[in-house]
Design a protein that fits this description.
Blueprint: E1 3-7, H1 27-35, E2 41-48, E3 51-60, E4 63-66, E5 78-79, H2 86-96, E6 102-109, H3 114-124, E7 128-141, H4 147-152, H5 156-165, E8 170-174, H6 179-191, H7 200-212, E9 216-223, E10 226-236, E11 239-247, H8 256-271, E12 276-281, H9 287-290, E13 293-303, H10 311-324
Parallel strand pairs: 11-12
Antiparallel strand pairs: 1-2, 2-3, 3-4, 3-5, 6-13, 7-12, 7-13, 8-9, 9-10, 10-11
Helix pairs in contact: 2-3, 5-8
């Protein structure tokens, strides 16, 4: 018997032996989204003995969607160790069918089976599920290479820039949280081309948590003592996550951002010995100089086919599919 329940507090997940080890799967992250990010959780939980699955959601208008914000690299169901979660998620989907006409999941990874399991579960419960790519995730698989071998495989212009500019800036990489260094990071970000930080208190609290756990890699590049480039990475379970990077106008002629990125790659490859470096979402061209692989992120739009409110969405999806089919020559 699978028991389905809904909760407005993320601490209900603390008792579950969750299988994943990534920043955006942790209860602490979900709690930050609620406490510092201003989001209102709706945790859908299905348990069957020792196995369970949870969908961390929130309500936006009449629709349910992932409990996530722009800091998330991805969103996926949370599963207990050893469970594939399909039966539990199908139980949630059947229960939601009595309450909702639409549930949308975005930034769902495909490489770990999350998108396929979600689609399978909701279709088994009678939902019409539209699956489409929605974003790109650039990664590097280190493959046991030392940093020197990785660098040798980078494009020539990038290697030339590093050779000419590396000695012109001073780089510091911290593996613990330091308030003064974080002020430098915030000052660089505020002076950069980036838009204003959406939730600075949330990001700082996340950095503090990661620093306390030994997962933080905070890089600062300075010229004559002034911080001109800053990057916020974390390392966990064999993956380095590149969360934020910024530089001031003064950093441009010195290529300080490039030099800092290279220093952090060297640190996570040679010292932390990570297996993957994850550059988050967004198909920015410069990421291709550092990364070697792109993975899609998917959007799953789930509708109740008997509900007239669903028909326009399903019709448009059918027309898009029809238009994408190759025509016979």
């Amino acid at each position: 018997m699978i028991a389905v329940s809904y909760h407005d507090r993320v601490n209900v997940l603390q008792a579950l032996p969750l299988a994943s080890a990534a920043p955006f799967d942790r209860v602490e992250w979900l709690d930050l989204l609620a406490s510092e990010g201003g989001l209102s959780p709706c945790i859908a939980l299905a348990q069957d003995g020792s196995e369970g699955a949870a969908l961390p959601l929130m309500r936006v208008g009449e629709r349910l969607q992932p409990l996530a914000n722009w800091y998330n690299f991805f969103w996926r169901p949370l599963l207990t160790r050893g469970a594939d979660g399909v039966q539990q998620m199908a139980a949630i989907a059947r229960d939601l069918a009595r309450k909702q006409n639409r549930v949308t999941f975005a930034q769902v990874p495909g490489e770990d089976g999350s998108a396929e399991r979600l689609a399978t579960a909701f279709r088994a419960a009678g939902w019409a599920v539209i699956v489409e790519p929605c974003d790109a995730n650039h990664i590097l698989r280190v493959g046991g290479r030392p940093y020197a071998d990785y660098l040798a495989a980078r494009p020539g212009p990038l290697r030339t820039t590093l050779k000419r500019r590396a000695a012109k800036v001073e780089v510091t990489i911290l593996t613990h949280f330091d308030a003064a260094a974080w002020r430098d990071y915030e000052a660089v970000y505020a002076s950069s081309w980036k838009p204003a930080e959406g939730r600075p208190a949330m990001l700082r609290r996340f950095a503090e948590q990661e620093g306390a756990a030994g997962r933080l890699r905070l890089g600062i590049a300075r010229k004559d003592g002034r911080a001109i480039a800053a990057q916020f990475w974390t390392v966990e379970a064999g993956t380095a996550w590149i969360h934020k990077l910024a530089h001031t106008d003064e950093a441009v002629p010195l290529s300080a951002g490039t030099v800092l990125t290279a220093a952090l790659f060297e640190h996570v490859i040679d010292r932390d010995q990570v297996e993957i470096v994850d550059f988050g979402t967004g198909d920015d061209p410069y990421k291709g100089s550092w990364m070697e692989e792109m993975r899609p992120r998917y959007r799953l739009d789930c509708h109740r086919p008997a509900d007239p409110r669903s028909w326009p969405y399903l019709l448009r999806a059918a027309l898009r599919k029809l238009a994408s089919k190759p025509r016979a020559g």
